Amino acid sequence: MLMQTHEARLSALREELKRRGLDGFFVPIADAHMSEYVGEDAQRLRWLTGFGGSAGSAAVLLDKAAIFVDGRYTVQVRDQVEERLFEYRGVPKDNPANWLAENAGEGAKIGYDAWLATPGWVRSTSAALEKVGAKLVPVDGNPIDAVWQDQPAQSDAEARVHTDTHAGRNAQEKRAAIADWLGEEKLDGVVLSALDSVGWAFNIRGGDIAHTPVTMAFALVQQDGTAQLFIDENKVGPELKQHLGNAVTIRPRSEFESALGSFEGKRIALDPEYGVAAIAQALEEGGAKVVETRDPTILPRAIKNEAEIDGHRDAQARDGAAVSRFLAWIEAEAPSGEVDELTAAAKLLEFRSVDGGLKDTSFDTISAAAGHAALPHYKVDEDSNITIPPGSIFLCDSGGQYIGDERAGTTDITRTVWVGSADGKAEPSAEMKDRFTRVLKGHISIARAVFPEGTTGGQLDTLARMHLWEAGCDYAHGTGHGVGSALGVHEGPQRIAKTTGSQGGTMEPLAAGMICSNEPGYYKAGEYGIRIENLVLIEERAIENADEGTWFGFENLTWVPIDRALIDIDLLTPEERDWVDHYHACCREILKQRVAETGDERAADWLERHTQPL
């Protein structure tokens, strides 16, 4: 009989821990590749607790348990997880290691899955537990898997070739560059464990994880340029075998761990952020020297080539037409009071799906009405779904994965719009317009920024916030993240955000070819939220009479009109008004024909009206 309640599941886990002689266990949202999004078979935290967010963890002892989430999920965790079963804890103020140290007794054995934890996490948690006489112990097989009776099977989606036309660079060249790097660093090989790194280095894509077109695989690349790809055999067809060529040995994924034991005396690179502890442990047990260093694919993957940039531009135009049709639909239908959040998200997917190049959404659509819009990472479901109230703000953050015949790209866009009333009399408040316009001013400040070589995202972040700061306001998320090329919608190493102790990419110098989001926001708890997000490409800028050196600016990639009803024109400078007018003129030029070809006359009219000068 299946366990239906989370109380029964927690009880079953505790019985399994007792059977194994363990006093506790750590439960992250993670897979063996440290992916942002994980497959259904890896959703162990959701199965155990009910929490459906994309980031979080739990610590379970035999008599108590706690769940740890960041500020994005403070409300969601209380809606989905029973407090009588799990204490609510907020990170970074609290963390599982300290909680376990405070609550586990002397001599306690705390289990963890070494395939779901990084070496750094193991070191820090072990140190915290050792201070109180407790011990961190790797488990042989995840105990949740032992009690999860209807755990989904791993995806068996076939891997597919990502053509040189899409990639702009063939896989042999990429792996030769990795081999050159290994030689320069005096390394014998590197483990590629991040799925997007494997996808990039071998020019392959797949369908194993929702929203990110990757295939489950590990890779080992050696200094002579040869490589081993560890992937389930049922995923590899004749076309992929031919694509990979003789320099790549295809081996079953099940042989990966044992293969790590064959590098005695060799120096093997492993990225400490994506390489899990089990990989490091297997290498060391086989006599290899593990060198923790950044995955050599990360920076070249972030710096897009011309084919990838062209693919992004094409994808943004395709996406812009679909989102414009959706916003025209919202403007016409939502004032009736009969459109709910789920219906809106489904309608947007319908508009996007008209394009045959759409392979998936790039993340779960954030379709957020009224107070829900104040939750930056809100995810609508049957329980949370509400009708979009007439006379309110509606926020939609969404994206698509487009892989056409010749071009491929990943999109991410947020638009915040005013939903009027059926009688046409409802107007946004002065405060709403003030906050929206300050967010817009921050967005424009980033879009217009010019900066010298060596500038980091942390240095630019203040530009997006300064107009909100003037009014005593701020937002708790970053201003911009990197974006992949038909890969992850969130990609490093660059980031535009406040500089913190952990840095998190904010200290990475921005370089030409990198793509970032530009998404300042404002959130009034329980009432409304605002975010304006475009993607931008970093490009070199020629500046007359500039100092010596290289200078950069941003090329805008996203083209969808910004809601004029929420703009307080008096708060904009003449330069900012010119920016909005020019942006809208470009939207009209880029999207007019695409929208017209759909035959959607309402959207064509909407586009014309919403791109007029302020």
Automatic annotation (TrEMBL):
<dbReference type="InterPro" id="IPR032416">
    <property type="entry name" value="Peptidase_M24_C"/>
</dbReference>
<dbReference type="GO" id="GO:0004177">
    <property type="term" value="F:aminopeptidase activity"/>
</dbReference>
<dbReference type="Pfam" id="PF16188">
    <property type="entry name" value="Peptidase_M24_C"/>
</dbReference>
<feature type="domain" description="Peptidase M24">
    <location>
        <begin position="312"/>
        <end position="540"/>
    </location>
</feature>
<protein>
    <submittedName>
        <fullName>Aminopeptidase P family protein</fullName>
    </submittedName>
</protein>
<dbReference type="InterPro" id="IPR029149">
    <property type="entry name" value="Creatin/AminoP/Spt16_N"/>
</dbReference>
<dbReference type="InterPro" id="IPR000587">
    <property type="entry name" value="Creatinase_N"/>
</dbReference>
<dbReference type="InterPro" id="IPR036005">
    <property type="entry name" value="Creatinase/aminopeptidase-like"/>
</dbReference>
<dbReference type="InterPro" id="IPR000994">
    <property type="entry name" value="Pept_M24"/>
</dbReference>
<dbReference type="Pfam" id="PF16189">
    <property type="entry name" value="Creatinase_N_2"/>
</dbReference>
<feature type="domain" description="Peptidase M24 C-terminal">
    <location>
        <begin position="551"/>
        <end position="614"/>
    </location>
</feature>
<dbReference type="Pfam" id="PF01321">
    <property type="entry name" value="Creatinase_N"/>
</dbReference>
<comment type="similarity">
    <text>Belongs to the peptidase M24B family.</text>
</comment>
<keyword id="KW-0031">Aminopeptidase</keyword>
<keyword id="KW-0378">Hydrolase</keyword>
<dbReference type="Pfam" id="PF00557">
    <property type="entry name" value="Peptidase_M24"/>
</dbReference>
<keyword id="KW-0479">Metal-binding</keyword>
<dbReference type="InterPro" id="IPR033740">
    <property type="entry name" value="Pept_M24B"/>
</dbReference>
<dbReference type="InterPro" id="IPR050422">
    <property type="entry name" value="X-Pro_aminopeptidase_P"/>
</dbReference>
<feature type="domain" description="Creatinase N-terminal">
    <location>
        <begin position="9"/>
        <end position="141"/>
    </location>
</feature>
<keyword id="KW-0645">Protease</keyword>
